[in-house]
Amino acid sequence: MSAAYPLEALLGIRERRAEERRRDLSLAQSRLSQARSALDEALRQCAEYRDYMNREISSRSDRLIGQTLCKEALEEFKRGLESLKFKLADLELAAERARGDLRKAADEEKQARACLREAVLETEKIKAHRKIWQAAQRLEQERAEDLELEDFSPRKPPAP
After folding, report:
1. Has residue 1 been placed in a domain?
2. Which of 50, 89, 109, 118 could pair covalently with 28 via S-S, beta carbons 3.0-4.6 A apart?
3. Is there a contact between 95 and 43 (Cβ–Cβ < 8 Å)?
């Protein structure tokens, strides 16, 4: 009967570690996907607001053409335009943050992939060692069986 592989516990640990790294990679890929979606949404909002802002500026300007305005009304018009531009700047800042989040998520995914590769490699090394050990055990067992058979085989009487 063959002895138990002495590094079986270590192999189990390495296999669990590789599985943890697979889960980490899956989470990192999920975060990367969410970051891509968030960036797409932020860029969409910027584009939509930019279109809205241009239409609103045009509309407000058209309403003022040909009218005589007092200084206060002109200042109110300018403040309205500035508030539209500030809102666009806020949306662009949010899009830039989303780009940063995407870069960070991509880096985390790359790192998780490298950690998984390392964990799998370490597991494969121990599995390869186990195969070598098992082959050596089989050879040792066969040798022991051959020796045992030799002990029970009849000996030829010595020649006179």
Report:
1. no
2. 109
3. yes
Range of the domain at 141: 8-150
Alpha-carbon distance of 47 to 49, in angstroms, equals: 5
Print burial letters for 91-102: b (CB count within 10 Å at least 16), e (below 16): bbebbeebeebb
* Residue whose structure tokens are 């697979």: 22
Residue ranges for the chain with pLDDT beneath 70: 1-2, 151-160
Q: Note the pLDDT tens digit of each residue in 94-116.
A: 999 999 999 999 999 999 999 99
Enter the pTM of the model. 0.75
Confidence at residue 155, expressed as pLDDT on a 0 to 100 scale: 62
45 within a domain of the structure (yes/no): yes
Cβ atoms of 125 and 17 within 8 Å: the answer is no
Residue 119: give its domain's CATH number.
Answer: 1.10.287.1700
- Counting the structural domains of the chain, the total is 1
